[in-house]
Amino acid sequence: MKEKDLFKISLVVITIFMLIQLSISYMKDVQLTFLDKLIPITKINTDKKVVAFACNVYEGNEEIEKMLEVMKKKGVKISFFLGGIWVKNNTECTKKIMAYGHEIQNHGYMHKKSSVLSRQSNMDEITKTENIIFEVTGKRTNLFEPPYGDYDDRTIEIANKLGYRVVTWSIDTIDWREDATKELILERIRKKLHPGGIILIHPKKITSESIENIIDYIHNEGYEIITVGEILKEQ
């Protein structure tokens, strides 16, 4: 075989090898992108000592008022994920949350489990909430936290198509449990506190009574408290 022919064959082999490598790399990127869309954001990977609070709201006006005053005193802004029906029935409290400078996001309309709803019902839960929040505040939402933290692949797909990123949490204070105490809530935060974490709270009496101590503890550990929207920009 001539040297010229060997060169041509070598060139073809190298080209094919490079194309295979590029194809493998592309498929990995596609797979990672696909997986990313099917997994809610629970935290971000960062060395920066920042955490965010996600307060899920379908009740607790009086406790919200107390929490807002404490956070104002402490100079802290958090994210309130609001239920649409709650916003409809509590427009003044919704406006007050916004007036205090907190982030308002989407928590579905009627607190239903996303994984058991039809495709259309999933869409309605998000869009009806977005519309009522916009009607009351003039602000659009772009983050969706499914009620109960319940979701499936379809939930993520639908939310993404509607322009939403789906988030849950990495630290559950379990303030929603009947046996929750100030000590238990703070202990859970002590054990689980980490950079880039999202901390789940609710407007419960035990939470409004604990929030100042929680904020003080987190600050004393050298952490900054920011909104969920802000923490996602740290990636």
UniProtKB/TrEMBL annotation:
One of its GO terms (cellular component) is membrane. GO terms for molecular function: hydrolase activity, acting on carbon-nitrogen (but not peptide) bonds. The chain crosses the membrane at residues 6-27. Keywords: Membrane, Transmembrane, Transmembrane helix. The keyword Membrane applies. Pfam families: Polysacc_deac_1. InterPro entries: Glyco_hydro/deAcase_b/a-brl, NODB_dom, Polysacc_deacetylase_ArnD. SUPFAM superfamilies: Glycoside hydrolase/deacetylase. GO terms for biological process: carbohydrate metabolic process. Residues 49-226 form the NodB homology domain. PANTHER family: GLYCOSYL TRANSFERASE-RELATED (PTHR10587), POLYSACCHARIDE DEACETYLASE PDAB-RELATED (PTHR10587:SF128). This is NodB homology domain-containing protein. It comes from Fervidicella metallireducens AeB.
